[in-house]
């Protein structure tokens, strides 16, 4: 075994170049209007439609060390926050480019590292002024609930009534057209001139406008609720005082740090602001949240426990082939089962069903994890008794006996289920569903009083859950997809489980639609969890940009030494030469934001070139600087809905523009991760490839390798 | 029919150090370790070239354990550095660089290896005696009644590993956590011998560094389902604990070779399960509250225990077994037959705890000398580096209890030591040349090689084209930008010495490390500020550095002494 060693930055930093070229691929995913990509596999001629960073990185070749690190950073962000990956990818590109510039000028690496890290820290402190508190969202929800009642809800959530029929049809028609050909009529629909011929962009616009009118309606509804709420609350004395203090304008005065204390009033505004142009997904998320809230109100014994949006109890069920309008939110668990179970479901439909939950597989040979089967044990027959049944049949009979004994008609299994058993169960009017998510099992365990078991032999009366209802999911088309499966709804009284049924006429878009749903769900989740949001639409990034410019100017004027403290190793000569380089490095860091903002503006299609977008940003930057206080400039501009910045490119009808919000920690973490990755690569000077012989390296690449 | 193959002759290489290949490989290795050294050291990306995990690091342990070196000379070197790092926890790069420097410097001299080795040994003992003596001018006593020096020590270790990707605030946070964890491992009631406890590092990747915490007791990770079953949690007083070191999964013990014949109708699995349930009944009748198992517990047994309100946690893992048995006072049960009432232990309390996306059972023992450091970092590679660094810091703090001194860091100890040796060999050569037939010239040559090896080690802290100076009073290490005009007053250009003890306004005079200068007697008294000022100092662990010095010189001697390498090629 020989180890190879390669120096990667002799003059130009190869690692940084790799980073910026990899990150360049994700440029179009920034902002509310995303351009999708087709990724084509040249070997098997398969293609995938992609519109998110995570999916993009899944299909890129990232076998190089830097690619691996990039992938690791994006995956870490995604698994922790499920959002912010496009920001991360873009900033990685922008900052690695900026760092290269610094290197080119000759700034020592430790200075780049410490000034950039400290610069970002300072930005993170600065943007706290743009945080908006999110409180009392659920007080409004409470009103809505008491006002509209549960019945109205379940009706309004059914797929047919969710969107007024005409608009739904219009949209459906256009979707279909979009698939068939890029007909010119599509362009007429969007009010803004669209430069790109890609129909996905256009479609996004259609959706946006539609979503907005819906938002308006809902807002009206919520408004009426608020007015009546006083009356309703007067009956609940335990909560009245609490309510009254907030009532005059519907929410608490908070966030005194901002000159104009911004508030996010109500769920509808919050959700619209966090939808980032994807209103159709956000509407579903909102409905899911309402359902959970309703459920929590009915279930909870003491109202002092605050309601939490539990995203782990939301599931998606994808039904490709159906029009978009069938997307909806339903209480309970919806999953696809084979058509052969139709008769069973019909039989079970009108009665409460008893269920058993099985963790692991339900096959004869399954043993719990950690059980080692001995290979050398043989069963011998001592008598000449004829063997009528195989052991599998014996086992199945045993299973059926247990099911009959405890009168169980529904089995939810976490793992695989033996095919033969499924068939036998169908004959016996019992439904077995395999590959059920752990969280679903948990929800049924809670609501139906079942206890999960590993083997059917463990089942006793205490393990059996009761009162589950099994019905077909009402869809106009009976057979849902090509593999002869149909959707079935399982629920029980008070189950804390919500399923989002996602439909798309274009199968290729299904994945993207699901991803978008989750992105919206997590955005709302973090906003509610942290009880604060940022003013969105680039406001935060703009403030960072202008803050850094001011910092750079200040240090240029004063050459202050206060900052030399940011260098970790203060005794080195680097500490004393830090003030010389500081403005340059800060400007480079700022250039990353500048690139981010101009791409954001450019992507939202109001400007025909990146250059135009860039000068637009420059113009506002100058204004901000002239105004003396960038943060109040941002707040002012933000409140002007037609200012063009922070609210640009979403719609042309001014009165319909919702405020745009952003989530706090995931965003800041994405920045930190992006900068960390760039600085990590910047500080690396060589690659050590372990366990590689001379022969395994391509002769052309052999140059630059050293062997030990 | 067997076929015999003629044996290949052994390969014999004479004077391995003179071969070009060995020299080249040594210089590559030296390049790798030197470029990693210090807070501004460069990082290395270690990977397998096939798209596997990439480890970004500048730590000797991670680097050397992944390097696959072929030549015996390099093997000796890497093995002894790794041994050193394993024993002392820190100063691995120091050892490796010093060893390479010594070999390189001595090779240029036309002296016999025997003389070199003998003199090197003398110089080494001169160094160690000085560092251990009361008169030593580069060590500071550790005052355990204040946290200052200990915090400086931890912070110096954290800052010297840039791949941890910590900001200053995060460094402060982690330093405080490490120190707290260390203090928690010191038992409250001590008799004659202090037996330090242990810090368990629990990974929580993907979270912010600031979310890291230290908790007394042990955290046992468990699945979310297990966690959900624990809730709502009933608080008890003292819990009786049974700890199993064996698998309770219901599989059969190894039957060895051959086949076991079982007649039809007999189920071995059921037989074993019956045995397990019997055990369960015994545990319940013995009023055990908590059953911990290193491996898997059979679901039926778990079900049985939970219906009797016994908490059962399985898959605890091997690393937790020893601490668990220590804090609960149990003997891990190794077989089903040996369960007796005196194998049970107890804990003060347990409670479920959730951090990030992970679920834990938090065990609070009666007497705490074990704690858990829940360590967070943003991504895998930075987490791995941080974990290793935290382990180093904890190890170093423990050695500081044994030898309560720290050495000045930032290159100051090295330059000070070099100045001391120069001075000694110049003024009292006879004490070093007592016995053998070495001339004074030999001594001067070797001493110069030794000192310049130490000094270039201090110079290795510089990676961005700076130059290293030393002052003529204390012999400390100072750094300056390359190409600074020689005429300017140094006092204005320099600010602080490497360790942060002296500043340039003290009317000192300086000279470049590379330039020849007259030997000086370094000032050996420490200023009062060293022990009580509020300023932050860069300090190193005395034990680790002393050990590193010894290993480096002895390994260099060993390698210089090699005259033949005989390789068996069969």
Explain this structure to me?
The complex is a heterodimer of chains A (708) and B (570). Chain A has 708 residues and is of the alpha+beta class. Chain A folds into 3 domains: 4-125 and 545-694, Orthogonal Bundle (GROEL, domain 1); 135-304, no CATH class; 333-367 and 389-496, GroEL, CATH 3.50.7.10. Chain A has helices at 14-24, 53-58, 65-81, 85-105, 109-126, 137-157, 165-180, 185-189, 199-233, 237-246, 266-274, 279-299, 342-348, 391-405, 419-427, 438-448, 507-530, 539-558, 573-603, 610-627, 630-639, 665-683, and strands spanning 4-7, 37-40, 47-50, 131-133, 314-320, 328-331, 333-338, 353-358, 377-380, 410-413, 431-433, 465-472, 485-492, 498-504, 532-535, 661-663, 684-689, 705-707. Chain B has 570 residues and is of the alpha+beta class. Helix content of chain B is 42%, strand content 17%. Chain B has 18 helices and 21 strands. Chain B has a 4-stranded mixed beta sheet with strand order 11-10-8-12. In chain B, strands 4-16-20 form a 3-stranded antiparallel beta sheet. In chain B, strands 5-15-6 form a 3-stranded mixed beta sheet. In chain B, helix 2 (60-66) packs antiparallel against helix 3, helix 7 (168-184) crosses helix 12 and helix 13 packs antiparallel against helix 15. At the A-B interface, helix 3, helix 5, strand 9, helix 19 and helix 22 of A face helix 1, strand 2, helix 7, helix 8 and strand 9 of B.
């Amino acid at each position: 075994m020989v180890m190879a060693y390669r120096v990667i930055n002799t003059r130009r930093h190869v690692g940084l170049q790799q980073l910026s070229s990899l990150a360049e691929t994700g440029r179009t995913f920034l902002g509310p209007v995303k351009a999708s990509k087709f990724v084509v596999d040249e070997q098997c001629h398969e293609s995938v439609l992609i519109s998110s960073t995570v999916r993009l990185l899944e299909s890129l070749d990232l076998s190089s060390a830097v690619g691996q690190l990039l992938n690791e950073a994006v995956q870490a962000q995604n698994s922790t926050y499920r959002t912010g990956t496009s920001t991360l990818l873009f900033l990685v590109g922008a900052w690695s480019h900026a760092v290269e510039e610094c290197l080119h000028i000759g700034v020592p690496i430790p200075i780049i590292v410490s000034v950039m890290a400290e610069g970002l820290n300072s930005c993170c402190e600065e943007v706290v002024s743009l945080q908006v508190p999110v409180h009392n969202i659920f007080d409004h929800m409470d009103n809505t609930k008491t006002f509209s009642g549960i019945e109205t809800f379940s009706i309004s959530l059914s797929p047919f009534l969710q969107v007024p029929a005409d608009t739904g049809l219009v949209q459906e028609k256009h979707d279909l057209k979009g698939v068939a050909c890029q007909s010119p009529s599509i362009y007429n629909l969007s009010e803004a001139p669209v430069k790109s011929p890609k129909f996905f962009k256009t479609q996004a616009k259609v959706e946006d406008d539609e979503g907005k009118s819906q938002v308006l309606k809902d807002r009206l509804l919520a408004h009426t609720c608020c007015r009546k709420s006083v009356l309703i609350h007067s009956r609940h004395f335990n909560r009245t005082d609490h309510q009254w203090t907030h009532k005059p304008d519907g929410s608490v005065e908070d966030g005194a740090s901002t000159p104009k204390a911004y508030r996010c009033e109500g769920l509808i505004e919050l959700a619209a602001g966090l939808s980032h142009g994807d209103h159709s997904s956000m509407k579903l998320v909102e409905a899911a949240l309402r359902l959970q809230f309703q459920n929590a109100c009915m279930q909870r014994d003491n109202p002092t426990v605050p309601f939490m949006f539990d995203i782990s109890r939301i599931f998606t069920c994808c039904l490709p082939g159906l029009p978009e309008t069938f997307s909806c939110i339903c209480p309970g668990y919806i999953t696809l089962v084979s058509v052969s179970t139709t008769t069973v479901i019909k039989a079970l439909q009108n009665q409460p069903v008893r269920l058993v939950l099985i963790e692991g597989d339900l096959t004869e040979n399954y043993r719990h994890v950690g059980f080692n089967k001995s290979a050398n044990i043989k069963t011998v027959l001592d008598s000449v008794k004829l063997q009528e049944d195989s052991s599998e049949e014996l086992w199945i009979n045993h299973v059926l006996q247990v099911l009959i004994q405890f009168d169980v008609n529904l089995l939810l299994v976490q793992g695989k289920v033996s095919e033969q058993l499924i068939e036998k169960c169908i004959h016996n009017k019992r439904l077995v569903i395999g590959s059920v998510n752990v969280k679903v099992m948990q929800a049924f365990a809670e609501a139906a009083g079942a206890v999960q078991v590993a083997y059917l032999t463990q089942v006793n009366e205490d393990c059996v859950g009761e009162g589950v209802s099994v019905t077909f999911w009402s869809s106009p088309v009976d057979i849902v997809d090509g593999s002869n499966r149909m959707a079935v709804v399982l629920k029980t009284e008070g189950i804390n489980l919500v399923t989002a049924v996602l439909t798309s006429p274009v199968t290729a878009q299904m994945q993207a639609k699901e991803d978008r749903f989750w992105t919206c769900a997590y955005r709302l989740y973090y906003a509610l969890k942290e009880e604060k949001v940022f003013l969105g639409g680039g406001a935060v990034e703009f403030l960072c940009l202008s803050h850094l410019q001011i910092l750079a100017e200040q240090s240029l004027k004063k050459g202050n030494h206060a900052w030399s403290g940011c260098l970790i190793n203060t005794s080195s000569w680097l500490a004393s030469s830090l003030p010389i380089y500081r403005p340059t490095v800060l400007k480079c860091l700022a250039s990353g934001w500048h690139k981010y903002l101009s791409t954001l503006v450019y992507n939202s299609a109001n400007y025909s070139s990146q250059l135009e977008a860039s000068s637009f940003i420059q113009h506002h930057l100058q204004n901000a600087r002239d105004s003396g206080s960038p943060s109040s400039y941002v707040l002012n501009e933000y409140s002007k809905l037609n200012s063009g910045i922070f609210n640009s490119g979403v719609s042309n009808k001014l009165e319909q523009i919702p405020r745009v919000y952003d989530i706090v920690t995931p965003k800041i973490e994405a920045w930190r991760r992006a900068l960390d990755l760039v600085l990590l690569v910047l500080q690396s000077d060589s690659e050590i490839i372990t366990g590689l012989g001379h022969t395994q390296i391509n002769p052309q690449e052999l140059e630059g390798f050293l062997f030990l | 029919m067997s076929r015999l193959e003629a044996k290949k002759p052994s390969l014999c290489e004479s004077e391995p150090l003179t071969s070009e290949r060995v020299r080249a490989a040594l210089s590559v290795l030296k390049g790798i370790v030197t470029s990693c050294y210090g807070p501004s050291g460069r990082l290395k990306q270690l990977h397998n070239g096939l798209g596997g995990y990439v480890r970004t690091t500048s730590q000797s342990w991670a680097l050397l354990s992944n390097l696959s070196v072929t030549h015996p000379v390099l093997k000796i070197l890497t093995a002894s550095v790794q041994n050193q790092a394993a024993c002392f926890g820190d100063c691995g790069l120091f050892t490796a660089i010093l060893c390479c420097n010594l070999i390189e410097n001595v090779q240029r001299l036309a002296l016999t290896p025997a003389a070199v080795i003998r003199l090197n040994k003398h110089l080494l003992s001169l160094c160690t005696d000085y560092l251990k003596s009361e008169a030593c001018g580069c060590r500071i006593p550790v005052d355990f009644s204040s946290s200052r020096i200990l915090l400086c020590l931890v912070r110096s270790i954290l800052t010297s590993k840039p791949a941890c990707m910590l900001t200053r605030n995060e460094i402060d946070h982690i330093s405080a956590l490490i120190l707290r964890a260390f203090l928690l491992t010191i038992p409250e009631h001590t008799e004659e011998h202090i037996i330090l406890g242990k810090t368990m590092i629990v990974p929580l990747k993907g979270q912010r560094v600031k979310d890291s915490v230290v908790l007394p007791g042990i955290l046992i990770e468990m699945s979310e389902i297990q966690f959900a079953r624990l809730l709502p949690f009933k608080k008890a007083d003292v819990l009786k604990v049974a700890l199993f070191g064996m698998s309770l999964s219901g599989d059969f013990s190894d039957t060895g070779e051959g086949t076991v014949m079982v007649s039809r109708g007999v189920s071995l699995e059921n037989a074993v399960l019956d045995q397990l349930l019997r055990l369960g009944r015994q545990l319940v009748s013995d009023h055990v509250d908590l059953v911990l198992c290193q491996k898997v517990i059979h679901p039926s047994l778990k079900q049985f225990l939970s219906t009797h309100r016994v908490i059962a946690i399985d898959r605890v893992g091997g690393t937790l077994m020893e601490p668990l048995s220590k804090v609960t006072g149990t003997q891990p049960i190794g077989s089903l037959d040996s369960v007796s009432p005196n194998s049970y232990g107890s804990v003060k309390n347990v409670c479920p705890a959730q951090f990030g996306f992970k679920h834990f059972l938090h065990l609070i023992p009666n007497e705490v000398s074990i704690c858990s450091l829940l360590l967070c970092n943003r991504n895998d590679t930075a987490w791995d580096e941080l974990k290793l660094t935290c382990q180093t810091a904890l190890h170093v703090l423990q050695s500081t209890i044994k030898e309560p001194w720290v050495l000045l860091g930032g290159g100051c100890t090295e330059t000070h030591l070099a100045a001391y040796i120069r001075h000694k060999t110049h003024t009292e050569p006879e004490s070093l040349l007592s016995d053998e037939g070495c001339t004074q010239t030999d001594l001067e040559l070797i001493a110069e090689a030794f000192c310049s090896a130490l000094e270039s080690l201090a110079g290795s802290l510089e990676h961005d084209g700076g130059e290293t100076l030393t002052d003529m009073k204390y012999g400390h290490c100072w750094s300056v930008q390359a190409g600074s005009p020689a005429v300017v007053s140094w006092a204005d250009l320099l600010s602080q010495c490497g360790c942060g003890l002296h500043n340039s306004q003290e009317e000192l005079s300086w000279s470049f490390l590379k330039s020849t200068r007259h030997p000086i007697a370094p000032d050996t008294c420490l200023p009062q500020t060293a022990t009580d000022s509020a300023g932050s100092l860069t300090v190193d662990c005395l034990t680790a550095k002393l050990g590193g010095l010894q290993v480096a010189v002895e390994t260099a001697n060993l390698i210089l002494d090699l005259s033949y390498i005989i390789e068996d090629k069969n």
